[in-house]
Design goal:
It is a single chain. This protein is of the alpha/beta class and 425 residues long. It is built from 14 helices and 16 strands. The strands form 4 sheets. A 7-stranded mixed sheet has the order 4-12-11-10-9-5-8, sandwiched between helices. The chain is globular. It starts with a helix and ends with a helix. Bound molecules: ligand KE4.
Length: 425
């Protein structure tokens, strides 16, 4: 028995599924999760001392790689002063100013502890600001696990959402409308039917929770125009794309300005941080200034702020970092495409900068329906092979690969060689 197997058999007795987040259980690839004990740069080690090249990076936060000295030293320095006060601190002001400097659409920002909390709070703020109840989300986009967002579109896109999880009362999702990604008509239909009731449209500007799906030409701009026309707020959920595609995220990359933006992952550098921010007149709805209540014991925790501030400061210090990271990503994912072509396979590779996904389908993946044509069993076989050959990728087809600044050319080459050995065997 490996140490991971021993630990997993212990874990399942005390933690649901043995994990603190479902995807970590490796359920969809039918194998035992690797229990990770250490990370450094682009590598992680499991409890059996096996090394992997890491393409999850804690699902996005580790854009500088694991254990970056500037982040680690900041955490140690702040932890030595004290872990938490539940009081205002200087580092929170510095962090808020840095986020506002990096993302022009953000005039004010509130820190929370996760992407889920950021999205939940942004939606409450949009509802408070507009006085409206309904929201539109897109099938296949994931915005954390707050009740109103755990929605499966009913048949067709005109049905009010039905809960996608046990324990969510229908009343919590009746105001959540579903539309189809890259399909502006499906959004227009909602606005034409009940536009004056719609508080916000929330979208992943690059979807990365049905695998990576890029917005087609005009999609994001079309959402912007519809929201402006009907007085609804446009919320970009940049929990994954924020500070990844470039300093000002997908909104900068695509040149579309949302009213509110949510962040997570990179903003905390591996510590639990989420944030939501946007136009001052909207954010001043938030308590204690306005009537939208939101609070949190560890919001803006100084040690977490120090970690995030150190990471964002590095990312903000030199735009060349993103140029190099995105070039690295482009050449890696194009290398993947070449291998698939060499092997005469029809699989699809969607990618943008350091984010991408391989879909086991011959269909172009542009929305949830087309993503769902992927062969998840074929993905499971591929994923297990990669894990057995020291490459740590998402244990689920509908996730993304994340490349960091720490991934060395030799490691990317080695990864492509392992892929080639799988697909061209
Ligand atoms: P968290 O509550 O997990 O910090 O963030 C929720 C969230 C919100 N918005 C987007 C676009 C997200 O991708 C996420 C969380 N992403 C998943 C990975 N697909 C987190 C990994 C997990 O659930 O364990």
């Amino acid at each position: 028995m490996t140490r991971s197997e021993e630990l997993f058999s212990e874990a399942v007795k005390y933690i649901p599924g043995g994990v603190n987040s479902p995807v970590r259980a490796f359920g969809s690839i039918g194998s035992v999760p690797r229990f990770i004990k250490k990370g450094d740069m682009a590598s992680i080690w499991d409890e059996d001392d096996r090394e992997y090249i890491d393409y999850i990076g804690s699902w996005g936060p580790m854009i500088l790689g694991h254990n970056h000295p500037a982040v680690l030293n900041a955490v140690i320095e702040y932890a030595k002063q004290g872990l938490s006060y539940g009081a205002a601190t200087k580092i929170e002001v510095e962090m808020a100013k840095l986020v506002c400097a990096m993302v022009p659409s953000i005039e004010m920002v509130r820190m929370v502890n996760s992407g889920t909390e950021a999205v939940m709070s942004a939606i409450r703020t949009a509802r408070g600001y507009t006085g409206r109840d309904k929201i539109i989300k897109f099938t296949g986009c994931y915005h954390g696990h707050s009740d109103g967002l755990l929605v499966k579109a009913g048949s067709g896109v005109m049905t009010a959402g039905v809960p996608d999880s046990l324990g969510v009362p229908k009343g919590y999702t009746k105001d959540t409308l579903s539309a189809e990604y890259n399909n502006l008509e499906s959004v227009k239909a909602h606005f034409e039917r009940c536009g004056e009731e719609i508080a916000a449209v929330i979208v992943e500007p690059v979807a990365a929770n049905m695998g990576t799906v890029l917005p087609e030409e005009g999609f994001l701009q079309g959402l912007r125009e519809l929201c402006t026309e009907y007085g609804a707020l446009l919320i970009f959920d940049e929990v994954i794309t924020g500070f990844r595609l470039q300093a000002d995220g997908a909104q900068g990359y695509f040149g579309v300005t949302p009213d509110l933006t949510t962040f997570g992952k990179i903003i905390g550098a591996g510590m639990p941080v989420g944030a939501y921010g946007g136009r001052r007149e909207v954010m001043e709805m938030v308590a204690p200034v306005g009537g939208v209540y939101q609070a949190g014991t560890l919001s803006g925790n100084p040690v977490a702020m120090a970690a995030g501030f150190a990471q964002l400061s590095i990312l903000n210090s030199n735009p060349d970092y993103y140029v190099k990271l995105n070039q690295k990503g482009d050449s890696f994912f194009e290398g993947m495409k070449d291998i698939i072509k060499e092997a005469g396979l029809p699989w699809q590779v969607n990618h943008i900068g350091s984010l991408g996904s391989l879909f086991f389908t011959g269909e172009k993946v542009r929305d949830y329906e087309s993503a769902k044509t992927s062969d998840t069993k074929a993905y499971a076989d591929y994923c297990n092979y990669m894990l057995d050959h020291g490459i740590y990728i998402a244990p689920a087809q509908f996730e993304a690969m994340f490349i960091s600044m720490a991934h060395l050319p030799a490691q990317l080459e080695q990864t492509l060689d392992v892929m080639r050995s799988y697909f061209c065997r």
